Amino acid sequence: DIVLTQSPATLSLSPGERATLSCRASQSVSNYLAWYQQKPGQAPRLLIFEASNRVTGIPARFSGSGSGTDFTLTISTLEPEDFAVYYCQQRSNWRWTFGQGTKVEI
Amino acid sequence: EVQLLESGGGLGQPGGSLRLSCAASGFAFSNYAMTWVRQAPGKGLEWVSGIIGSGGSTYYADSVKGRFTISRDSSKNTLYLQLNGLRADDTAVYYCAKVAVAGGDPFDYWGQGTLVTVSS
Hints:
The complex is a heterodimer.
Chain A: E1 4-7, E2 10-12, E3 19-25, E4 33-38, E5 45-49, E6 53-54, E7 62-67, E8 70-75, E9 85-92, E10 95-98, E11 102-105
Parallel strand pairs in A: 2-11
Antiparallel strand pairs in A: 1-3, 3-8, 4-5, 4-9, 5-6, 7-8, 9-10, 9-11
Chain B: E1 3-7, E2 10-12, E3 18-25, E4 34-39, E5 45-51, E6 58-60, E7 68-73, E8 78-83, E9 92-99, E10 107-110, E11 114-118
Parallel strand pairs in B: 2-11
Antiparallel strand pairs in B: 1-3, 3-8, 4-5, 4-9, 5-6, 7-8, 9-10, 9-11
């Protein structure tokens, strides 16, 4: 299975700052990478698919980039509601894997 | 509006069984693959199982293969997950999710989750 490694595990920032989250795949996933946000007690929410396509309704401050094995989720200006855990995900041969998550905390 | 509502969680005995259900509405259920994802307490997300729209093909994580069975009933717009041979490490919140038609097949809608606790 393809392993996704996210870094850092925790990102301590303040509202208004820029957040840069990394996801590295153990082998190429082309651009088939998604990003999710999860807040405590809630289900995950899809933010980005195909590495850089933002889901309808997701604010423009969220952007994704990368291809192959290295991907980045950027939150340009952190809002208070953005403090959460973020997961990357890929699918290969009808098996999905998630990264271990990056917690963005105040 | 797409809605997914899981049920069937609860306390299961080691070696026992549970059946989870996920009632879907707001989309053409039989046209979409569906999946189950779980999250152990305080841990990350783990994909468990997936099934194509017709139900003709199913897929499982190695950790549950041979013990869990995914199925769907399009007449009831319901997804199921039969959990047999329960183990303590199956304790988790189980989410059903709709698979989007997009590269990489991401999960665009999720239920609220149902908690399975395996303990004697």
